[in-house]
Design brief:
The chain has 310 residues and is mainly beta. It is built from two helices and 28 strands. The chain folds into two domains: 37 residues; 252 residues.
Length: 310
Amino acid sequence: MEVLQQNQNMYIIKRITLFFCIITLGIGLAVSGCQDSTSTINGSDNGKERVLRNYRLSGNETWEPDRTYIVHGTLEIPTDVILEILPGTVVKFGDDAQIKVSGLKAILKVGTPLRHSTLDEPVYLTSNNTNPGQGNWKGILFDITRDATSYLRGTVIEFAQIALDIKTTSPTVLDCTLRYNETAIALDGSDSIIQYNDILENEIGISTIGRQNRPQIQYNNISSNEFGIFCENVQSIIRYNNFEKNDYSIKLNVKFDLSIPNNWWGTLADSEIAKVILDSADTDIITKSIGTVVYTPIAETRFEEAGPRE
């Protein structure tokens, strides 16, 4: 009987232990789940950090430069919600993280307001990696928002796959620096104003597709990219830009002609300009039927006013 009683006691102890293990595990999973879907605040060596994991804004938010924001997964801005990122703010992105502006009236405002006559401190949108490189994070996707009030001004965007992927909407991009990205700006069915920017050291500076839209690409420094502009939208307004040190400044990829007068090419020599344009003249390189890039008249001097303004 004594042995039986001991066995029963051991059985009860094991059941109680198992019960508390299950409870502890459940609490742990619940806490973990909350951390993945909401923001958390962690201390850092330069102040405070706000870490966001797969975060969907439920209302308007303003991000201020008193902390660093770190985004993992997708940060989603839905319909009728505004995210404003104030000048001087730093936002870092984990591997394959992105901002998705996805609602019909979703709005993203980054940097110096358009109404201000001078630039404030820049916003930095960059990789969270210790040794960052091209394509670390996905970039910002404007996904058919049909809103033209979003803007980025006085903003540095770097190390993204597509820094600004703009589909069927027209945010304004002014006074920004886009560098070290796979593609800096991709325009698909967009009338965006792309002016006074430095577009530097990307694989592709600007990619355009869609035939009925007329993005305005003016007063930019488009330099040291593999392709300055990869063009499939021949309605694009491309003028008053400085094209310098690109492997190819323009690649035309449709059968229609493209007229882009009044740009600076780093030279006045037609033979040198032709070397950085891929069009119908390059039958030894391009096998498909494409149009011709008409780049005359040529600007006689460099546009010193191009690029971000003070």
